[in-house]
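Hallway conversation turned thread

IA: we were arguing at lunch whether anyone had actually written out Ribosomal RNA small subunit methyltransferase H end to end. Turns out nobody had. So, for the record, here is the sequence (308 residues) and right after it the structure tokens. Reply here if something looks off.
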Amino acid sequence: MEHISVLLNETIDMLHIKDDGIYVDCTLGRGGHSAEILKRCKKGHLYAIDCDKQAIKESQDRLSQYGNNFTCVHDVFQNLKEILDSMGVESVDGILLDLGVSSPQFDDEKRGFSYRMDARLDMRMNQEQELDAWKVVNEYTLQELTRIFKEYGEDPFAYKIACQIEKARQEKPIDTTFELVDVIKSALPQKVLNKKGHPAKRIFQAIRIEVNHELDQLSIVLKEGLKRLKPQGRMVVITFHSLEDRMVKNIFKEVAVPKKVDKRLPELRIEKLDYQLINRKPVMATEKELNDNNRAHSAKLRGIERMR
């Protein structure tokens, strides 16, 4: 399946790209957003980060069509500070994060991200790291599994599913995605199995977040990225589930929304903030995009600008 960048036009418009600006795409993927940045940034530079070597390999030829003013970096985006320091970059005009798993990663059955294709349990975005889905499913304790299913999957049957996994792996390791799906289904009541939507979706999401430390990385890169913005510089973030969106919303709110005060108290100093929200409500896909790209359904775009 061809990869289609979600909310592409809305994201590029929100970045407000300057011809001579310095930009960071923290999630290069197959280069859809990066290519559009380079089309508009002829005299500046783009730093494109991805922890997936295959993504970088496939994107470089695409990006080179628009010039050579870009640098691809194989690393996790939580290392944004160290990456920019090593490049001698003190501040930037824009930062983009397009979170979640890219379509090519989902569609490559060998990567083990999808509950709809049978493969060895993997789910690593960075193929060089040790922790994978197999280790989580087969080596985490009952308590650890329950915690991640509750926190990262928000699954009401977290404990029951964790118990069923523990029971199943005592007989033999759970090696594949379909084996895990069968175990998950066996823990759920029929009324849940009859509902719309795949019964393993929340658990697969939870395991993927754990394997790739997605929320920890996101918290770090948001805070470091805000510090690196120039005045009038912007950070834009596309999220695909409520945990990510909640984190982005709250971190942006901390720096861009004045704290509530008691208006009855006299002589209160007006708080001067360094940032402002570009949009208070998230931008979501249009009906046309939803028809063209089903994976845009859960996408939410938020942006913030540094004022001074």
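OS: looked through it. The mean pLDDT is 93.
IA: good, adding that to the notes. The CA atoms of residues 95 and 235 lie 5 Å apart.
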